[in-house]
Structure formats: structure tokens, C-alpha cells
Amino acid sequence: MGDLTVSLTVTSAIGSVTETKTEYLTVSAPPSGPTAAFSADPTSGAAPLTVQFTDESAPGDADITAWQWEFGDGADSADRQPVHVYTEPGAYTVTLKVTTELGTGSRAKGRYIHVLGAPEGEGEGEGEIPSCVGGAIGTPPSVGKPRADVTLLVSAVAALILARKRTTRAKFG
């Protein structure tokens, strides 16, 4: 890359002539296309989960003229900074494709958005640990409702502890 010196030599039956031009040609890198990049906030939570997506793409040598988002649940958007609501539990792959006059760039993030089921205890008993713990543990009213992912973790740990106690009792009477 940079400036090049060019020499041309013409040879005939009567002799040869050489002409040299210093820094006669300039060679530069080909224009670059876009590189797709994005983030989201939040990336996990209980359904319905409202997620703000932020385009962080690098345009390369031309302006980005189009954005195409696929949210992994069958929905899509052509907005630059879309907001999407996930209504069903699951792990979703999100893909962003950006376009310039020089080409396209695409980025997929597998299992990027994690949507949990609706928290238990809506209405009556709100804020309590799910019933699989035996209802013995609750959240004090002054603390507020626990996050769904924490509630699910506590439920899983409690279920394991109870299962282990049952197994121990069965072995030792």
C-alpha cells in the first residue's frame, strides 16, 4: 500500500529506452464493508420481557442504509434501535444484518436472550417462594417481590435439599 515507482522499458533493434516515474501510482486498501454488532438490555427476565436492542455496528467506508433484526421468536424489525417484547419462556438467538452500498455484515448471538416463565405467586400470596419449597420460607413484605431468576434458583436448591433428605431417611430408616 502506498505510492509506487513505475519503470517502462521499450526495446527495439536500435536499442532501448527506459522511463521511470517516482511515486506514480497510489495503491490503497479496498473499501471496507460494515461489521454488525449489537447489545441488549436486559438479556434475561420473566415473561413478558421487554428488551431494548442497541446497534453498535461499524459502518466501514460507507453509511449504513438498512438494519434487519431477527429476534428468534419469529418476529423481526427494520428499526435501528428496536424494542421487542418476548412473551414466551425460552432462550432466543438474535441476529442483526446491516447493509451499506459496499455490502452487508451480519452478527448472530446464540441463546442471547433468556426469558423465564411468569413468576409464581401472582395475586394471592404475592412475593412468596414457590410451593415446591413447602411454603415454609417467604419474603418479608418490606423486601418486595424476589426476581424470577433468583426465585427459580432458590426453588431448585430447596428441591434438591428435600430430595436428599428423603434419600437419607430411606437409607437409614
Report a brief summary of the structure:
The protein is mainly β and 173 residues long. Among the domains are: 38-116, Sandwich (Immunoglobulin-like), CATH 2.60.40.10; 131-172. The protein is built from one helix and ten strands; from the N terminus they run E-E-E-E-E-E-E-E-E-E-H.
Note down, in words, how this protein is organized:
The chain is mainly β and 173 residues long. Among the domains are: 79 residues, Immunoglobulin-like (Sandwich); 42 residues. A 5-stranded mixed beta sheet has the order 4-10-9-6-7, with no helix packed on it. Strands 3-5-8 form a 3-stranded antiparallel beta sheet, with no helix packed on it. The longest helix has 25 residues. The radius of gyration is 31 Å and the shape is rod-shaped. About 17% of the residues have low confidence.
